[in-house]
Amino acid sequence: MVIYCGHLLYLSETFIRSQAGALRRFAPVYAGSRRVPGLDLPLETTYTISKGDTEGRVREVLFKLFGIAPNLEQQLRALDPVLLHAHFGWDGFRALPLAQRLNVPLIVTFHGSDATVTDLRYAKTYYGHRRYLANKGKLQKEASLFLAVSEFIRRKLLEQGFPDDKVLVHYIGVDTKIFSPQKGESAPIVLFVGRLVERKGASYLIRAMAEVQQEHPEAELVLIGEGSLRRDLESQAKNSLRRYKFLGAQNSEVVQEWMDRAAVFCAPSITTRSGETEAFGIVFAEAQAFQKPVVSFGSGGIGEAVSHGETGFLAPERDWQVLAKYLATLLQNPDLRRKFGIAGRQRILRLFGLEKQTSALERI
Predict the structure, then answer these.
(1) Distance linking the first and last C-alpha atoms of the chain
(2) Average of pLDDT values for 50-62?
(3) How many whole angstroms separate alpha carbon 190 and alpha carbon 205?
(4) pLDDT of residue 12
(5) Mind spelling out the 3-state secondary structure of the chain?
(6) Whose CB among 10, 54, 254, 263 lies 3.0–4.6 Å from 38's, allowing a Cys bridge?
(7) What is the pLDDT of residue 125?
(8) Distance, CA of 276 to CA of 176 (rounded, Å)
(9) 204 CB burial (10 A radius; 0-12, 13-18, 19+)
(10) Taking the mean position of all CA atoms in its chain, how far away is CA 56?
(11) What is the mean pLDDT of the chain?
(12) What is the pLDDT of residues 242-268, one digit of tens each?
């Protein structure tokens, strides 16, 4: 199986590598335009169009514009692949000519903004995304199957004209052996993990934590992630919070350590003017696998990842005051944290375990 993603692979895309590593009936290889600083991938099974030099960049442009990549095609043909699985809609569109030349089915997984961003007036999109939106009818017609990471994303795809019989929901699984409670809660920490961009809603969390810390001055906000809003968010936190840390981008092992230590996980994603919103939020499933109660806004597909009143609380979107109330409720009630945490891990084991979900993917 060829796993195609234009940029191989950012730190935030551990779900792609985890899914590939859990395959049993297929031998995965990675293909893409180029490597990027991020996740380690096996060199012997990773194929790229560009090596980063001038010639490689020219080859990358030719592929993006015309679907031409003779060297990559030759390398993959020698492997005799049985299918090509592209991640993200725009990469599915780019990989379509490659799949056709290899004469293999193309499956495309849609993860979020590739299905929700429809108003480009407010989106900071690149040329490839715009080109995809202008030509997605070709992908809708010629790809074999589309996988939506939530029911919410499936509805979005159907609204855009994707054929009903070619769109299936497939939840990406969480490795519950790795994402598993170890030492457990060590301090009243509210943990945020995500990119520091508008959609992730960190500014609402800071406002909520300022109110929480009036009653619970010992509570600390820890934010893991990098992004264009970091400087603004640090300024906001400096002016309003007593205890906080910005840790920047971290690898999966560090994220797991903080998830284990935290009391509550909170990532209050919002819907932006472009339409971009949370598709499902694999990070919510990961936090629940660590037996952590989750607090967020009930936007996009988050309600499929978090069960309100059972594994966490979902506030009305952008209502930071209700968000603060839910955070305070959990911080002052260890029995409720424990109850939600246990229910959350049981729900992840039942519905979103990596082995179970990857086995379902292989049947597809």
Answers:
(1) 13
(2) 90
(3) 10
(4) 86
(5) CEEECCEECCHHHHHHHHHHHCCCCCCCEEEECEECCCCCCCHHHEEECCCCCHHHHHHHHHHHHHCCCHHHHHHHHCCCCCCEEEECHHHHHHHHHHHHHHCCCEEEEECCHHHHCCCHHHCCCCHHHHHHHHHHHHHHHHCCEEEECCHHHHHHHHHCCCCHHHEEECCCCECCCCCCCCCCCCCCEEEEECCCCHHHCHHHHHHHHHHHHHHCCCCEEEEECCCCCHHHHHHHHHHHCCCEEEEECCCHHHHHHHHHHCCEEECCCCCCCCCCCCCCCHHHHHHHHCCCCEEEECCCCHHHHCCECCCEEEECCCCHHHHHHHHHHHHCCHHHHHHHHHHHHHHHHHHCEHHHHHHHHHHC
(6) 10
(7) 61
(8) 29
(9) buried
(10) 28
(11) 95
(12) 999 999 999 999 999 999 999 999 999
Rounded Cα distance, 145 and 42, in Å: 27
- The first and second tokens of residue 166, run together, are 């070619």
pLDDT of residue 108: 98
Q: Mean of the pLDDT values across residues 115-119? A: 81
**CB-based contacts of 156, cutoff 8 Å, min separation 6:** 115, 116, 148
Provide the pLDDT confidence category of residue 64 given band limits of 50, 70 and 90: confident
User: What integer pLDDT is reported at residue 118 of this predicted model?
Assistant: 72
Distance CA 333, CA 326 (A): 11
45, 18 Cβ separation under 8 angstroms: no
